[in-house]
Amino acid sequence: MTGADAPTPGSDAASVAGPDAAQAPGSDAGPTLGSGDAAAAGTPPAVVAWRYRRLLGLYPAHWQAANADALLGVMLDVADAEGRDRPMAREGLAVVRHASGLWAAQVRGRLERDSALRSFSVAGPAALVSGSVLAALCLVLGELAPGVPHIWWRDPSVRVFGPLPTSGTLLYAVWGLTLGAAVLGFGRVTRTALWLAVVTPALLVALGALVWLARPPLTVLIVFTTFAAVALTSPPGSLLGSARRRAGLAGVAVALAAAGGATVHDATTDGVLWGFEVPGDMLPLLADSYLGSGFYRGLGLQAVAGLAMPVVLAAIALGVVTVWRRPGWLLAAVVVGEPWLLLARVMPTPELSGMSIVRFAALTVPLVAAPLATLLLVGGCVTARTLRRPTSG
Amino acid sequence: MREPTVYLLTALSAGSRHGYALISEVADLSGGRVRLRPGTLYGALDRLVDEGLVAVAREEVVDGRLRRYYDLTAVGARALAEQAARLRQVADAAAAALRVRGVTA
After folding, report:
1. pLDDT, tens digit (0-9, with 9 covering 90-100), for A294-310
2. Does A71 touch chain B (CB under 8 A)?
3. Residues A350, A364 contacting (CB under 8 angstroms)
4. Which of A36, A113, A375, B2 is the most exposed place for a label (fewest CB within 10 A)?
């Protein structure tokens, strides 16, 4: 490289139209920082440099080490040329945009390489399957099943949703779209549908309040919102993955929905829940709690919680065993499992309320608190150690 | 290829340039429409270096400031030539269509 093909700012400036160009700094031909407008305004060059260097703190350490001085030089050149002694908002925004892209790439790279961090991505698919299964159960058993009452919680003043008992069908359709898009590998549609799944429950609550339209109970809607939010915050790319993974995702969803449907059916017709007979004095309530008040109250959702309980327990146990190498599994088991257990607390028929609420509350507190404490202790250490490890990128 | 990228590669095709020179030249080439901020410039340069279109030529310290010079690679020159041909095609097609309407582009 010769001096001729490596122009100084001064020689560049000669080819750039406008008065700014004549102020090209840092070269023999142009003014230096000391002679620029910033200095004329009385700001010491070191202070100006410090103001710009603060911005560079937004970049990842390895990028700063390699590029910060060169970028700072350009920033100060531009500041001199434009007669400024501090960064403009647009300059700050450009740095934020560039730095956040680098951080995202760094996190993505580590997620792909490190098994401990990669394990966090299991929460997305778990939440997606959970939301889809629950939506399928609610749609089939709570809305479409023959005999489901069209009087919402025995309150004739509340309007039903056309031919269906509640407006929950809208939400279940969104979840159907979400699972379909995820299985087909349409990433953008999946994310849009998940955003819809986050906001639709709030919309149903608003509709219920404004026009007295029947909706699923608030707890059920909160559970759906939680599943959608967890699926949305899953690391990029983890939600969909390969075609094989998507097929597995669909398979798990269908199997769980079928098992859930069968369980609810048995519980509400035969009075048997997971092999345990429902006490005789409750038997008269079975038909009424399912057919009289609907799936959302009584044994319908309780049976779903009954199905979820062993699955959640198994997932938490697996998470505890593997927490040292894969802390994300335990996090997913707790974050996705807890909403399933929460369903048991949907207000049942008054006759059942006392027993189930106390029992499930007593059970879920240690179920959530113990794994979370383990996760914070062990998973936090592992993840912190992983993030501290220098990367080749 | 986006417009600022075309201008960046065009600026580098005349020889190696450092950051401020690139900002100035891109503004000049675009008639003042494209004004790159340093963060945006380095984001674009990072990407172009990763894609092999641009390479760091050398560094020097001038008045206490580090100057990093970038150069167009052979791959970058080819990519720019292809882009120029594509743009010329688009411009020719637009001019021909306008001539039918009696408008000269």
Report:
1. 677 666 777 777 778 88
2. yes
3. no
4. B2
